[in-house]
Amino acid sequence: MTAKKENPVVRAIGGDIFWWMAETFDRKTRLRDIPDELLDRLSTVDITVKNYEEDTNSITAIALITFAFKVAQKVQLPHEALSNITLLKVLAKNEKAVRAGKRELASPYWDTPLYELIAGEVGERIRSRFPLI
Q1: Which runs of E-coded beta strand occur in 16-131?
Q2: What DSSP state is assigned to residue 76?
Q3: Radius of gyration of the chain (CA)
Q4: Which of 18, 46, 103, 116 could staple 120 via S-S, CB 3.0–4.6 A?
Q5: Is 131 in contact with 87 (CB distance < 8 Å)?
Q6: How many whole angstroms separate alpha carbon 90 and alpha carbon 51?
Q7: Model confidence, pTM
Q8: What confidence tens digit (pLDDT) does each residue in 4-36 have?
Q9: Contacts of 127 (CB under 8 A, 6+ apart)
Q10: Helix runs in 29-80, H state only
């Protein structure tokens, strides 16, 4: 009898969060739909980390970005990784502020599906206006 190995990505992210990404995240998911625990991780990801595999928040952000690109049926470009992580962090920090009642966001894009904000035309426009690299 062989023991089933746990996937290291699932172990780093946590089963519940990975399950939410795999089973709940879809074309309709908006920022307001992200569970608080996941939002906390995304909003505190350290974008200066050079070795992502040792930082669970970075792994979590990369996983969500990967799911967003999969939903958008697009391929992630490696040179946009830092821009994508930063964009996701900014979105998460603002969503936390909205939930805490510290901020109101009147932008019509705030209700845009999350995959579109990251991997769609909206994300492409944001990255082109604010390049990090």
Answers
A1: none
A2: P
A3: 15
A4: 116
A5: no
A6: 21
A7: 0.87
A8: 677 888 888 999 999 999 999 999 999 999 999
A9: 80, 83, 84, 87
A10: 36-43, 56-72
Structural contact between residues 106 and 98, judged by C-beta atoms closer than 8 angstroms: no
Using a 10 angstrom Cβ sphere, with 0-12 exposed, 13-18 middle and 19 or more buried, the burial of residue 42 is buried
Are 108 and 64 within 8 A, CB to CB? no
Task: Name the CA dihedral angle for 83, 85, 87, 93, rounded to a multiple of 10 degrees.
Answer: -150
Return the residue matching tokens 């209700």: 111
Length of the chain: 133
The answer to whether 94 touches 103, Cβ cutoff 8 Å, is yes
> ∠ CA(11), CA(56), CA(44), 5° rounding?
145
